[in-house]
Design brief:
Blueprint lengths: L3 H15 L3 H12 L7 H5 L7 H36 L18 H15 L3 E2 L5 E2 L1 H4 L25 E2 L5 H9 L4 E10 L11 E11 L4 H16 L4 E9 L2 E10 L10 E9 L1 H11 L10 E8 H9 L12 H4 L4
Parallel strand pairs: 1-4
Antiparallel strand pairs: 2-3, 4-5, 5-9, 6-7, 7-8, 8-9
Helix pairs in contact: 1-2, 1-4, 2-4, 5-10, 7-9
This protein binds phenylalanine (PHE).
């Protein structure tokens, strides 16, 4: 005669082998070996058995537990393997993958890389400053009085705390001189912001390459030579460069630069690309006051500064008709500069 425990064991093994998936298998485990399970119940029942019966039933109980546990484990791993196999069944690992599209450098970045390389050959190092500035670095230190139009509400983005988005990269002139005594030879490329009416040649955010050169005995000839060399390296040796007198509060004299070249698409047109001039003594004095020393004594030190319109340079170089294209992230535009 078979003991009920043996019957339970056989029944459990049959159910295990029939279980179609893991959840059904777990239900079998609970039914037989769980705390309320029918095999487990024999553990309780042992206490009421006689001394003679106990070892016999104990042995059967152990055997049943061991056999059922082993069967559960084996079937479980079979089911998991089958599931994984079916998940991969449709996967052809020999097919080529989906290629990642290769990006390209933004035309402004390409233009900037070229500009940096040219200035580096002339010994200019890179400098930088924050986009969010205080009025002092953007205007006061640059000899720009409170009633200057550039400071007007309608021309500049002011933050509620009185700071502003820098309207030009000339702020970095000041920050560079605050940080280190002369001589100085830096360029500072970066974003600038103005509340301009947006059109094909104006954007509320644009880019400039600031330059600052401070040493003893610097003259307009150095300024002209440096910028002419830069523009001819960038646009080609035939490029004509024209300097026009202009006004900036922080340079004296001040000039604007136009370029024209037969080899460029813009052809016979003069295009304005740069504002520049000799650093105004008032700028050196403002820096000295901020530093608390006389490191930039205007009697000893001289310098020139310039601000190149980076978007403008890239538009000329790559024949781009509209400044807004730089920021629209249109792949049809960007892929042309691959
Ligand atoms: N900051 C000026 C502008 O944005 C350009 C400039 C830079 C002029 C340095 C002179 C010297 O128009």
């Amino acid at each position: 005669m078979t003991h009920p425990l043996e019957e339970l064991r056989e029944a459990a093994l049959a159910e295990i082998s029939a279980a179609p998936e893991e959840r059904a298998l777990d239900a079998v485990r609970v039914r037989y070996l769980g705390r309320q399970g029918s095999i487990s119940a024999w553990g309780e029942r042992m206490k009421s058995l006689s001394k003679e019966e106990r070892p016999v039933v104990g042995k059967l109980l152990n055997e049943a537990r061991t056999a059922v546990t082993a069967a559960l484990e084996e079937k479980g791993s079979k089911l998991r393997a089958a599931m994984e196999a079916s998940a991969l069944a449709d996967l052809d690992v020999s097919l080529p993958g989906t290629p990642n599209e290769l990006g390209t450098l933004h035309p402004l970045t390409q233009m900037l890389d070229r500009a940096i390389a040219i200035f580096r050959r002339m010994g200019f190092a890179l400098a930088e400053g924050p986009d969010v500035e205080d009025e002092w670095h953007c205007f006061d230190a640059l000899n720009t009085p409170p009633d200057h139009p550039a400071r007007a509400e309608q021309d500049t983005f002011y933050l509620p705390d009185g700071r502003l988005l820098r309207t030009h990269t000339s702020t970095v002139q000041i920050r560079t001189m605050e940080a280190a005594p002369p001589p100085i030879r830096v360029i500072a490329p970066g974003a600038a912001f103005r509340r301009d009416e947006v059109d094909a040649t104006h954007s509320a955010q644009f880019h400039q390459i600031e330059g600052l050169y401070v040493d003893k005995g610097v003259t307009v000839a150095d300024l002209k030579g440096t910028l002419e060399f830069f523009l001819r390296e960038l646009f080609g040796p035939e490029t004509e460069v024209r300097f026009r007198p202009h006004y900036f509060p922080f340079t004296e004299p001040s000039l604007e630069i136009d370029v024209k070249s037969k080899t460029l698409k813009s052809g016979e047109k003069w295009i304005e690309v740069c504002g520049c001039g000799m650093v105004h003594p008032a700028v050196f004095e403002a820096v000295n006051r901020a530093r608390g020393d006389a490191a930039f004594d205007p009697e000893t030190w001289t310098g020139f500064a310039f601000g190149l319109g980076m978007d403008r340079l890239a538009m000329i170089l790559f024949d781009i008709p509209d400044i807004r294209l730089f920021a629209q992230n249109d792949l049809r535009f960007l892929q042309q500069f691959a």
